[in-house]
Each structure stands twice: as structure tokens, then as C-alpha cells.
Design goal:
233 residues; alpha+beta; three-stranded antiparallel β-sheet; two-stranded antiparallel sheet; 8 helices; elongated; nucleic acid binding; RNaseH_sf; Homeodomain-like_sf; DUF4817
Length: 233
């Protein structure tokens, strides 16, 4: 009969310590006198087992039940790795189901092969002309900075973010398993109908804003915000 946690605590307390430590037989006798109505009196062997467990684990709680250690052979590991090579977006849960092994075993196989989960990065959607314009702008700015090194400190860099009610990408559930960072990104459409727009800027290492915009940002709202919020800030 397995002893309860309360009974184990009682045994340890009755055992004592130092010069006042009782023998296993004395503890068993004292315990049975204290609980005479217990169906099965404990023996000194039971006391010894409880004390030994407490000395080993520093606890009177049940030992955690251990399942059979998973055996993953080389062929199974290769099959799992092939799944992630063919589909880097596959989840560890799905791979575990497909190969009939535990999810922890899948993670262990990936770790042994130095595969890591990389999150998707959201970037702004660009048209074909945008790339050439950005390169041209960089060339112009490089020339201006050569002539005026402090120019960037006087430029207000700003952007607005649209918080949509739907259609947003949940990056938490987006993973790309690989041994090297694939720099995976998803182009995110901007300026769609939204619940709220937020504008913020940085100038000379100082944050300006953020300012909440009622509705979409247009020229009238931007001029009003520029004169009444941005400049005073």
C-alpha cells in the first residue's frame, strides 16, 4: 500500500535528526501507535524506504513517472530531416504525427542537425520602380552627406502604421526551419481600411510622437498635424 504524502511527512518528522534521530523500528512503532486505526501498520522497511527517498530527492512527493525512453534510429532521423528540407514551414507537431514520434524527439533531431526556427519578417510591398528610386535616393544622399556631415541630424524620419481589423499576419505561427537564416519575409500591403492609424518620427536621436490619426492620413490632416503636433513637439 502506497503511503500518502502526509504519512511520509509524519515519518520524516518522527525520524528526527542528530542525537535525537530514532531508528527505523522506533519510528514504525511510534507511527503505528499514533495511527492505530490504519488498516496496514507500517514496518521498519517502509520507514527506511521513505527516509531513503527523502535523502535522495529532498522531497516526500511521488517520483515522476518515466515513460519508455524514445529510441530514434538514424533512418527515422533522416526521414524527419527530409520532411523539413522539402517543406521548411512544416511544424514540429505535424512532423511528429507524420513520423509517429514525439514532438520532443522531432525538436531533438532538429537541434542535433543545427536547424533553428526563424520568424517571418514583414516588409513593405514595393513596385518595380521603387527599387531604382531607392538606389537613386541613396546616391544623392551620399553626395549631400559628403558636403554636410550633420545633415541627417536635421532630417525628420517618419512613418505611419496601419492597425487593421483583419488580414494581419501572425508572425508567432510563422516558422522557417533551416540551419542558416533564410531571411524569409512577407510583403505586407499598407494603407488599407483600418481601425486606427498611428504616425511617429525620429529626428536627431529624439522620438517625435506617436500621434493617433482619425481615419486615413491625407494632405489636409498631415498639414494640421504638422502645425499643431509635430512642430510643437
Amino acid at each position: 500500500m502506497e503511503n500518502s504524502e502526509f504519512e511520509r511527512i509524519t515519518v520524516i518528522m518522527m525520524r528526527g535528526y542528530g542525537e535525537r534521530m530514532r531508528s527505523y523500528a522506533e519510528v514504525a512503532e511510534l507511527f503505528n501507535e499514533e495511527f492505530p486505526n490504519r488498516n496496514n501498520p507500517i514496518t521498519r522497511f517502509t520507514v527506511a524506504r521513505i527516509v531513503q527517498r527523502f535523502n535522495d530527492t529532498h522531497s516526500v512527493k511521488d517520483r515522476p513517472k518515466r515513460g519508455r525512453a524514445p529510441v530514434i534510429d538514424e533512418e527515422k532521423s533522416l526521414d524527419v530531416m527530409q520532411s523539413f528540407v522539402e517543406d521548411p514551414h512544416i511544424s514540429t507537431r505535424r512532423a511528429a504525427l507524420e513520423h509517429d514520434i514525439s514532438q520532443s524527439s522531432v525538436r531533438k533531431i532538429l537541434k542535433c542537425n543545427k536547424f533553428k526556427p526563424f520568424k517571418v519578417k514583414l516588409v513593405q510591398e514595393l513596385s518595380e520602380d521603387d527599387y531604382d528610386r531607392r538606389v537613386e535616393f541613396c546616391d544623392i544622399m551620399m553626395g549631400k552627406l559628403d558636403a554636410e556631415p550633420e545633415l541627417l541630424n536635421r532630417i525628420l524620419f517618419s512613418d505611419e502604421a496601419t492597425f487593421m481589423t483583419n488580414g494581419a499576419v501572425n508572425r508567432h505561427n510563422c516558422r522557417y526551419w533551416a540551419d542558416n537564416n533564410p531571411h524569409w519575409y512577407v510583403e505586407a500591403h499598407t494603407q488599407r481600411p483600418s481601425k486606427v492609424n498611428v504616425w511617429a518620427g525620429i529626428v536627431d536621436h529624439r522620438l517625435v510622437g506617436p500621434f493617433i490619426i482619425d481615419g486615413n492620413l491625407n494632405s489636409v490632416k498631415y498639414l494640421d498635424m504638422l502645425g499643431n503636433q509635430i512642430v510643437p513637439a
